[in-house]
Amino acid sequence: MKIKHLIFLILCQFMVCLVHGQQSSVQVEKIEMFPVEPRPGESVKIRCFLKNVDPSKKIKPSILWSIRESESRSWRIIGNGASITDTFNNRLSGRKESDEVYEIVFRPIQETDAGTIKCEITNTEGQIFKLADLRIYSPPYITYITQDIYSQIGKQVILECRADGYPKPSIKWSRTGEMSAVLYSENFEITSVSREDRGTYRCYAENETPINRIRQSAEAFVTLTIDFPPTISCDTYTIYQVPNINADAEVTCTVEGYPLNNVRWYYSQKDFNIETEITSDQHHKVETIASPDSIKSVLVIRNVNDQHFGDYSIKVEGGFQQIVQKTITLEPMMNPEALLNKAHDLKIKILIILLNLILFFKI
């Protein structure tokens, strides 16, 4: 019985020592990062907290820092305690804050530093570690966008846009001048383009950090040009003007089409088929405001006289030498004074006729 009792005491003492040893063994409590959502260019502090450190022990825990980068499967040792073995081109430093706290600092952090950080205790009792994700919250940037497109009516057009950043940005397409999004996708497809599809399209990439909800964005543009035959519309096609009163006549025409070439004005007198090209001079003024697929042309006929009445034609040349024209006619209008005088003379004549009729019937 004495031997059994002795064995029991020895086992109990061993178990107590084992439990005490497990409770008092040094462990990695946590890893903290500041800021919690680092962005490229910022300084990032990573701290490793230990617990159950016995200050009376002469042999202190040995801390090993490692990183496993996003594109790698293997660990890379970057520091031992406060000593840095891989400085990341002098961007990484380390220090021992206390027996319980060690830290490393990236100054500055880069997108390529993203990965997993490991703080590990190496001692005679084994290896104890904690892991922390090192995420770099970078703003979106456009990596690819379709170049400006020239297309004919009825063709298929695909606009492509690619963006990178962290978190992965979302992409939406819109057309400039329109507030609402056209499509939430990297590809924007138009199966059969029409002239109404022409314009500048915006690719808008956006992401948002999960904790602080910071939104970041980038944008790029592509212009879609459609080849379509020219059309002409004018604010009037008949102008009435009183001659010789120092007054001008004016007409504005808008030409749409692509491509557009050689917008010109011509004049021909009534009953004559001879056209004369009009340029800005003492009798005429031609103003032109052009955009890629439209032209606004204003013709002013100065100090209209009897020699100006006739037909004024605007002609435009489009693709494949298509020529389109519209004709505006300048017609004379009677001077209001002369009209009043004629009316007055007419009244007098009517009165004379009436008087003559009265006298005739009296006789």
Furnish the topology, listing elements before pairings.
Layout: H1 2-24, E1 27-34, E2 44-51, E3 62-69, E4 76-80, E5 83-84, E6 92-96, E7 101-106, E8 115-123, E9 126-134, E10 141-145, E11 149-152, E12 157-164, E13 170-175, E14 187-190, E15 199-208, E16 215-234, E17 238-241, E18 249-258, E19 261-269, E20 276-278, E21 284-291, E22 294-301, E23 310-317, E24 323-332, H2 336-362
Parallel strand pairs: 11-16, 17-24
Antiparallel strand pairs: 1-2, 2-7, 3-4, 3-8, 4-5, 6-7, 8-9, 10-12, 12-14, 13-15, 15-16, 16-18, 18-22, 19-20, 19-23, 21-22, 23-24
Q: Name the structural class.
A: mainly beta
Mean model confidence by pLDDT: 86
Low-confidence stretches: 5-23
State the helical fraction: 10-25%
* Radius of gyration over all CA atoms, rounded: 44 Å
Number of DSSP helical runs: 2
Largest β-sheet summary: 7 strands, mixed
Shape: rod-shaped
The ordered H/E elements are HEEEEEEEEEEEEEEEEEEEEEEEEH
Distance between the termini: 177 Å
Write a brief structural summary.
The chain has helices at residues 2-24, 336-362, and strands at residues 27-34, 44-51, 62-69, 76-80, 83-84, 92-96, 101-106, 115-123, 126-134, 141-145, 149-152, 157-164, 170-175, 187-190, 199-208, 215-234, 238-241, 249-258, 261-269, 276-278, 284-291, 294-301, 310-317, 323-332.
